[in-house]
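Obj.: predict assembly geometry.
Materials: sequence records (below).
Method: joint structure prediction, all chains together.
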Amino acid sequence: MDFQLSDDQLAIQDAVAKFFQEEWNSDIRRDALDDGPVKISDEIWQQIVEMGWIGIAVSEEHGGSGLELLTAAMLAEEGGQVLFPSKLCTAFTTAFALDQCQSGDTAALLTDHMTGQQFVSLAVDEANGTFGPENNATAATLAGDGGTISGEKILVPDAECADCFLVAVRLNDSGALVKVAADAPGLTITAMQRIDGQSISSLQLADVPFSSDDILGGTDDADQVLLRTYEFWTTLISADLLGVTTKALEMTNEYAKVRQQFNKPIGSFQAVSHRLADVKVAEEVGRSLLYGACLALQENPDQCFPQVSAAKAWLSDAAAEATEAALQLHGGIGYTWELDVHLLLRQARSHAVYLGDAAYHRKRIGNFITG
Amino acid sequence: MDLKFSEQDEAYRKKLLDWLASSGELISRTMQGTDDSGERNPMQAMRDWQKHLYEAGYVGMSWPKIYGGYEASLTEQVIANEELARAKIPPSLNTVGLTIVAPTMIQHGSEEQKQKYLKRILRAEDIWCQGFSEPGAGSDLASLKTNAVLDGDNFVVNGQKVWTSAGHIADMCVLLVRTNRDAPKREGITYLLADMKSEGITIRPLRNAGGGSHFNEVFFDDVKIPKENMVGELHGGWAIARSTLDNERSGLSGVVALEANFKRLLQLTESASIGGEPAIEDAHTRDQLAQYWIEIEGLKYLGYRTLSEQLKGQKPGSQASVGKLFASKLRQAMAKNALEIVGPYAALTKKSPHVMDRGRWVAGYFDSLGYGIGGGTSEIMHNVIAERVLELPRSVED
Ligand SMILES: Cc1cc2nc3c(=O)[nH]c(=O)nc-3n(C[C@H](O)[C@H](O)[C@H](O)COP(=O)(O)OP(=O)(O)OC[C@H]3O[C@@H](n4cnc5c(N)ncnc54)[C@H](O)[C@@H]3O)c2cc1C
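Observations (raw structure tokens):
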């Protein structure tokens, strides 16, 4: 066991940071607030595909690089730092789900997804007051080798660029993932825009037809695949939040060294420096919890939820704390449209309530520790 | 990063659990504070326990073998940390020696000093205390005044230390003295090892706010300390003191104690009630318990990260203040929360009828407040993080 990034991982991290630096900038996010939703250009996405990012944590057996799940989380964190859209997290998540499914046309779909032939998104949550696949009502009925799905899905990411969705449904008293094409008859997509310029959609499914080949992982462990996928997704969003935290701290830290008032850098005032020290603590604890979640996912995927929830609960709060401190400690300039602080804050606030807010995740942990 | 436990690791875990199971008798004897002949002697019982723990391989795990350590892998340390936290084992008698003195000595001590003292620390044969703070030098430790003059083969020490934890039971003391009054304050300090039985040392116990007598005033009146008891160079003690402080502020040991505290708090919520309901069913209480669990988990993984760095030869640096600040806040939050859960009887003295758990919760509360002061206050931890980790300009000019 070694609880530090390896040299290989550091090299990947560097390369990823460099790529983002060259290809992405936060103005794209700012503009998207007026003209959104934010879009990643086809050229950039093509490069990402060609660098093999999407399959980075997919098993070699299925054509991926077979690296640890942590590597994907690291990329998500780098993305968070530069405000790269969370489409990357979506791509990792569906790749993860498909990697574990055995039946249906999974292998072909996964290959398409990793090579950029198709973009696969996923639809899990429902408007039932909670998060995750456990209380799903959307049902699929199967007769012979075909059937239909009816129900409603919410909080679906990147629907506007998806070719198809993995829809979590109830099928014969078990969970299952069914592939539904974006242009399937009976499917209505309602797009919404989050305050961070990213889109989120709901899917209305009214007798949407599917064939038995579209049932992915319709094996005994489909429920497990679904749960694990949701935990992995949550971990990636936590990593993105860590990136936001780190970036907000870094910006403010630099500013506190150069901005002078009363003939001194503002960072020499303890009211300023102690608040930044608190953010630093929150970031370090958050990074540690993220590694803990990756460890649990890797080693104990069917019982990883307490660690995953710990990371998400903590980082949801930490990113808010870091970005609010950034806004406050930059003073007037921090409150402008022009500075990136509000972009980070918007992403922090959007992700904080995504895939379960801090209170929800603490509730899960409460149930775990009290047995 | 390698996040796996191998089969070998699991075998190591099994061995530890078997050993714990077979140590039950000594554990309960230590908890009761009786020696092997059944007489009441808590000190001896705790020394016996530490020796037993050491001989089994669970003390000095990270130390070099030549000094009696085990050079255990990170995984082994992680496993031992987890399992010892889970088991109810007696607290350590010699934390200052093990976590503060020894790492400093391994790093900066002479070969002779290492041979002479390290094994005795492991077996709890010497109990150590830390003579740093003085009445006029606390947060601004470098302004310390206790004076030492080199006279032939001995330093002659005069002055006073204060808040010296365990000074009254200690055999040895790491002592900071001023050896050059004309130099800038950080350049005239020397680091010494003092025998607490030396002639001229007077120890006066001080009662702490919680009522306990754990710390002391220590007076030095022409105390002779042999020259070979100097660590590092003459006037070169400040850098060594800094590394002692970093060691004091790092380490996994805090997590083990916090996990034990958490377990007790959880049990309390099962037995106490809030508004006629078991506290454990109360939504607010559950939310707070979850938060503590998250924070302990975070502290644990933070510790693993630090340990990974140390195993690669990096020293625990200012980063250690992150853990120290966080752990003391967490300890305080849990302790305050416990008082709320105990309810109106939380304000009873430990001998009152109806007091809960013999006053443990009040004692724990006072203890927790001390953690925000000892080893550097929380304000100073904020300064250290700001100035040395975030590299912000200093808040105080000196
Ligand atoms: C339980 C306990 C055990 C201890 N054990 C030992 C021991 O074994 N050996 C030993 O040598 N010492 C020990 N100490 C002493 C401890 O290290 C000092 O008390 C501590 O460093 C603070 O110093 P002080 O008491 O002089 O307070 P001061 O330094 O006078 O501080 C008073 C207040 O001012 C604040 N303050 C001071 N300077 C600054 C600054 N620059 N910026 C912001 N705020 C500031 C402090 O945070 C504090 O709140 C122990 C203390 C306690 C409570």
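Conclusions so far: Chain B has a mean pLDDT of 92.
To do: check interface contacts against the pulldown list.
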